[in-house]
């Protein structure tokens, strides 16, 4: 991924609540804000409070990675978080269910991948994983079907 000054990601949890590992190859730092997974329900309630229209259209609006809130709002709402300044040559690992956002401090080159461990409950079905209920769902399901993502392998 090529990051540009001020670009980044909206608040999100990794697909299927997987872990992610993120490596910064070169360039300017990335700035992370990460909320512990145990505060996932509070984060969703915060998003629903400040962006109710998004959740009226889709029960899992945060899956669409379109919610931006500043850390000061988390402080005001009593939601704890950690910040990380990631430098070239460093890894950042996010844990299942941990909401996070990233802002690039300048041009950089990074790489990320999601993964699960053998004992990770995030891969045991889709229980507890928010599901899209909006008009984008048809497109998501079409992509999943074309890739056979949900097909069980023998």
From TrEMBL:
Residues 1-132 form the JmjC domain. It holds the Pfam family JmjC. GO terms for cellular component: chromatin; nucleus. GO terms for molecular function: histone H3K36 demethylase activity; histone H3K9 demethylase activity. Coiled coil: none annotated. One of its GO terms (biological process) is regulation of gene expression. This is JmjC domain-containing protein. It comes from Daphnia galeata. The lineage of its organism: Eukaryota, Metazoa, Ecdysozoa, Arthropoda, Crustacea.
């Amino acid at each position: 991924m090529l990051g540009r000054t001020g670009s980044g990601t909206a608040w999100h949890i990794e697909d299927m609540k997987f872990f992610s590992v993120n490596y910064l190859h070169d360039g300017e730092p990335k700035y992370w804000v990460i909320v512990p997974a145990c505060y996932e329900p509070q984060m969703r309630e915060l998003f629903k409070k400040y962006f109710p229209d998004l959740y009226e259209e889709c029960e899992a609006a945060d899956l669409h990675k379109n919610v931006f809130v500043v850390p000061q709002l988390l402080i005001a709402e009593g939601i704890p978080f950690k910040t990380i300044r990631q430098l070239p040559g460093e890894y950042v690992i996010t844990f299942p269910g941990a909401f996070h956002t990233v802002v690039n401090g300048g041009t950089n080159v990074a790489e990320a991948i999601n993964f699960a461990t053998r004992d990770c409950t995030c891969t045991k079905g889709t229980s507890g994983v928010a599901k899209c209920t909006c008009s984008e769902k048809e497109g998501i399901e079409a992509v999943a079907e074309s890739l056979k993502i949900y097909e069980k392998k023998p």
